[in-house]
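Request: Not sure, any thoughts?
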Amino acid sequence: MTPDPRIGVVVITRDRRAELLRVLDRLTALPEDPPIVVVDNASRDGTADAVAAAHPQVVLVRSRTNLGAVGRNIGVALLDTPYVAFSDDDTWWEPGALSRAADLLDRHCDVAVLTGRILVEPGGREDPITPELRDSPVPGRQGLPGPALLGILAGASVLRVDAFTDVGGFSPRLWLGGEEELLSLDLAAAGWWMCWIEDMRVHHAPSTERDGTRRRCLGIRNTLWTAWLRRPVGGAARRTWAVLRSVPRDTASVSAVAEALAGLPWVLCNRRPVPHRIEQGLRLLEKPQRHSRARRYVG
């Protein structure tokens, strides 16, 4: 394989110096030799200095505040490639995966996102969400490179940069935690396809350095916000009821719902329901979501 100028990589990170350095060791060794942008979200553990010392070829952004997922928007703006692969500081792409994605995006000009098959380390077992992606019930046009999706996994997806920027990237208001859902619905509403690709593999070594409870709160809040931002009243109500039935009965969940309610005026001002065909696809996903082994609010 030779270097591939069509695709770059953006990584966001905060306070995971050792894990990030291991990921960058793998990404910088890829045969595609992609340009890499690391956006450090105000780490306090010396992450930025360590990246600058160990990987001087990486473009490093030292944010003074924690931008959350919006750091990816900044990283994308610094690339001049038509495609971007997102990695988290605990995920990395297999050799050849990025060129495989670029080839598919070259061939399918109406596809905006390709999500890879996630292998969980140690051991390389399939991520529990894999069956939902492989057997997605979302209708797709004939000839798509893989099953059609209505959602992406940011740390395991390759995106068409023009499509990403045209819909505004990740929302500053959602910040982090389930932030991909709103982006995905906006891409679908704009006429783009999203697909899962079996032979495009990405590895995930889940970090233990995270505030699981706060991440759960943000995930619940953002899921509720996205439902009312983009779904018709019936679909939003169904999604809300499904979320409230599934969350743990504790103060963290109560806090998440309170945050969601506090943001209701903003949600109503920015409400833009998706077309009917997309809502039909979302309804087809309701049963797999109810029985999902991966989509659980924990922490």
In short: The chain has two domains: 7-204, 212-290. The mean pLDDT is 96. The first strand starts at residue 7 and ends at 13.
